[in-house]
Fold this sequence. Notes:
The chain has one domain. The chain contains nine helices and no strands. It has helices at 6-15, 18-29, 36-44, 51-80, 86-97, 101-115, 119-139, 144-153, 159-171. The longest helix is centred in the middle third of the chain and has 30 residues, at 51-80. The chain starts with 5 loop residues before the first helix and ends with a helix.
Amino acid sequence: MLQSQAGNAVSEGISFHREKEFLNYLNELSLRKPTTTERAFIKFLGKYGGADEVFAEYGFFTHLWRIVRFLRVIGDARINSGKQGLMDFIDWANRETGLSKSLVYHQVFPAHQGNGPGYASTYAVLGQSISDIQSQALGNGKSLLGFNTYACSLGFPPRSVFEEKLRTYATT
Protein backbone atom coordinates (compact mmCIF):
# COMPACT_ATOMS: atom_id res chain seq x y z
CA MET A 1 0.00 0.00 0.00
CA LEU A 2 1.42 3.38 -0.95
CA GLN A 3 1.91 5.86 1.84
CA SER A 4 -0.30 8.88 1.33
CA GLN A 5 0.74 12.37 2.29
CA ALA A 6 -2.89 13.44 2.53
CA GLY A 7 -2.74 13.16 6.30
CA ASN A 8 0.27 15.44 6.49
CA ALA A 9 -1.35 17.93 4.13
CA VAL A 10 -4.49 18.07 6.29
CA SER A 11 -2.36 18.56 9.40
CA GLU A 12 -0.30 21.28 7.70
CA GLY A 13 -3.52 22.83 6.37
CA ILE A 14 -4.95 23.04 9.88
CA SER A 15 -1.79 24.59 11.27
CA PHE A 16 -1.24 26.92 8.30
CA HIS A 17 -3.21 29.68 10.02
CA ARG A 18 -2.68 28.66 13.65
CA GLU A 19 0.39 30.85 14.11
CA LYS A 20 -1.47 33.84 12.68
CA GLU A 21 -4.35 33.18 15.07
CA PHE A 22 -1.88 33.18 17.96
CA LEU A 23 -0.33 36.43 16.73
CA ASN A 24 -3.82 37.98 16.60
CA TYR A 25 -4.39 36.75 20.16
CA LEU A 26 -1.14 38.33 21.34
CA ASN A 27 -2.05 41.63 19.67
CA GLU A 28 -5.51 41.58 21.25
CA LEU A 29 -3.98 40.70 24.63
CA SER A 30 -1.98 43.91 24.62
CA LEU A 31 -5.20 45.91 24.08
CA ARG A 32 -7.29 44.54 26.94
CA LYS A 33 -7.06 43.57 30.60
CA PRO A 34 -5.48 40.11 30.79
CA THR A 35 -7.01 37.25 32.76
CA THR A 36 -5.20 35.73 35.73
CA THR A 37 -3.67 33.03 33.52
CA GLU A 38 -2.63 35.59 30.92
CA ARG A 39 -1.00 37.75 33.61
CA ALA A 40 1.01 34.70 34.72
CA PHE A 41 2.05 34.13 31.10
CA ILE A 42 3.13 37.77 30.74
CA LYS A 43 5.09 37.53 34.00
CA PHE A 44 6.78 34.34 32.78
CA LEU A 45 7.88 36.14 29.60
CA GLY A 46 9.90 38.53 31.78
CA LYS A 47 12.66 35.89 31.80
CA TYR A 48 12.92 36.24 28.02
CA GLY A 49 12.98 40.01 27.64
CA GLY A 50 9.39 40.80 28.55
CA ALA A 51 6.06 40.41 26.79
CA ASP A 52 6.55 43.32 24.39
CA GLU A 53 9.88 41.91 23.19
CA VAL A 54 8.59 38.34 22.88
CA PHE A 55 5.39 39.46 21.11
CA ALA A 56 7.41 41.54 18.63
CA GLU A 57 9.79 38.65 17.96
CA TYR A 58 6.88 36.24 17.52
CA GLY A 59 5.31 38.70 15.06
CA PHE A 60 8.53 38.91 13.07
CA PHE A 61 8.93 35.14 12.81
CA THR A 62 5.25 34.62 12.03
CA HIS A 63 5.52 36.92 9.05
CA LEU A 64 8.88 35.48 7.98
CA TRP A 65 7.63 31.90 7.93
CA ARG A 66 4.37 32.84 6.22
CA ILE A 67 6.48 34.38 3.43
CA VAL A 68 8.57 31.19 3.29
CA ARG A 69 5.44 29.03 3.02
CA PHE A 70 4.07 31.17 0.22
CA LEU A 71 7.44 30.96 -1.56
CA ARG A 72 7.21 27.16 -1.30
CA VAL A 73 3.85 27.28 -3.04
CA ILE A 74 5.03 29.70 -5.73
CA GLY A 75 8.17 27.63 -6.22
CA ASP A 76 6.10 24.47 -6.44
CA ALA A 77 4.09 25.97 -9.27
CA ARG A 78 6.96 27.66 -11.11
CA ILE A 79 9.77 25.14 -10.69
CA ASN A 80 7.76 21.93 -11.05
CA SER A 81 5.90 23.19 -14.11
CA GLY A 82 9.17 24.12 -15.82
CA LYS A 83 8.28 27.83 -15.98
CA GLN A 84 11.33 28.80 -13.92
CA GLY A 85 14.53 27.06 -12.92
CA LEU A 86 15.55 26.72 -9.28
CA MET A 87 18.35 29.30 -9.45
CA ASP A 88 16.16 31.82 -11.30
CA PHE A 89 13.45 31.28 -8.70
CA ILE A 90 15.91 31.84 -5.85
CA ASP A 91 17.14 35.06 -7.46
CA TRP A 92 13.53 36.23 -7.98
CA ALA A 93 12.52 35.38 -4.40
CA ASN A 94 15.57 37.18 -3.03
CA ARG A 95 14.75 40.33 -5.04
CA GLU A 96 11.05 40.30 -4.20
CA THR A 97 11.23 39.46 -0.48
CA GLY A 98 14.70 40.48 0.64
CA LEU A 99 15.21 37.01 2.11
CA SER A 100 18.70 35.64 1.63
CA LYS A 101 19.29 33.27 -1.24
CA SER A 102 20.53 30.70 1.26
CA LEU A 103 17.31 30.85 3.27
CA VAL A 104 15.18 30.59 0.14
CA TYR A 105 17.18 27.63 -1.16
CA HIS A 106 17.17 25.74 2.14
CA GLN A 107 13.45 26.31 2.68
CA VAL A 108 12.15 25.79 -0.85
CA PHE A 109 14.34 23.15 -2.47
CA PRO A 110 14.28 20.52 0.33
CA ALA A 111 10.52 21.00 0.72
CA HIS A 112 10.05 19.97 -2.90
CA GLN A 113 12.60 17.17 -2.83
CA GLY A 114 11.59 15.70 0.53
CA ASN A 115 7.83 15.99 0.22
CA GLY A 116 7.54 15.98 -3.55
CA PRO A 117 5.89 18.23 -6.10
CA GLY A 118 2.48 19.52 -5.15
CA TYR A 119 2.82 19.10 -1.40
CA ALA A 120 3.22 22.79 -0.52
CA SER A 121 0.41 23.74 -2.86
CA THR A 122 -1.83 21.07 -1.36
CA TYR A 123 -1.43 22.25 2.21
CA ALA A 124 -1.76 25.91 1.19
CA VAL A 125 -5.01 25.31 -0.73
CA LEU A 126 -6.41 23.14 2.05
CA GLY A 127 -5.29 25.67 4.66
CA GLN A 128 -7.12 28.47 2.84
CA SER A 129 -10.22 26.29 2.54
CA ILE A 130 -10.13 25.58 6.27
CA SER A 131 -9.68 29.30 6.97
CA ASP A 132 -12.71 30.16 4.83
CA ILE A 133 -14.88 27.57 6.60
CA GLN A 134 -13.53 28.74 9.95
CA SER A 135 -14.56 32.34 9.16
CA GLN A 136 -18.04 31.09 8.33
CA ALA A 137 -18.17 29.17 11.62
CA LEU A 138 -17.06 32.20 13.63
CA GLY A 139 -19.67 34.30 11.82
CA ASN A 140 -22.27 31.75 12.90
CA GLY A 141 -21.29 32.07 16.56
CA LYS A 142 -18.96 29.08 16.87
CA SER A 143 -15.89 29.58 19.01
CA LEU A 144 -12.40 29.47 17.54
CA LEU A 145 -11.40 26.85 20.10
CA GLY A 146 -14.47 24.74 19.34
CA PHE A 147 -13.92 24.87 15.59
CA ASN A 148 -10.21 24.05 15.81
CA THR A 149 -10.83 21.23 18.28
CA TYR A 150 -13.45 19.72 16.00
CA ALA A 151 -11.22 20.07 12.91
CA CYS A 152 -8.32 18.35 14.67
CA SER A 153 -10.60 15.55 15.90
CA LEU A 154 -11.65 14.51 12.38
CA GLY A 155 -8.47 12.63 11.59
CA PHE A 156 -7.50 12.37 7.93
CA PRO A 157 -10.52 11.54 5.79
CA PRO A 158 -10.52 12.47 2.10
CA ARG A 159 -10.51 16.22 1.56
CA SER A 160 -14.11 16.34 0.33
CA VAL A 161 -15.32 14.49 3.44
CA PHE A 162 -13.15 16.63 5.73
CA GLU A 163 -14.41 19.91 4.26
CA GLU A 164 -18.04 18.76 4.24
CA LYS A 165 -17.85 17.82 7.93
CA LEU A 166 -16.34 21.24 8.69
CA ARG A 167 -19.02 23.03 6.68
CA THR A 168 -21.74 21.11 8.51
CA TYR A 169 -20.17 22.02 11.86
CA ALA A 170 -19.85 25.66 10.78
CA THR A 171 -23.50 26.00 9.81
CA THR A 172 -25.33 23.96 12.47
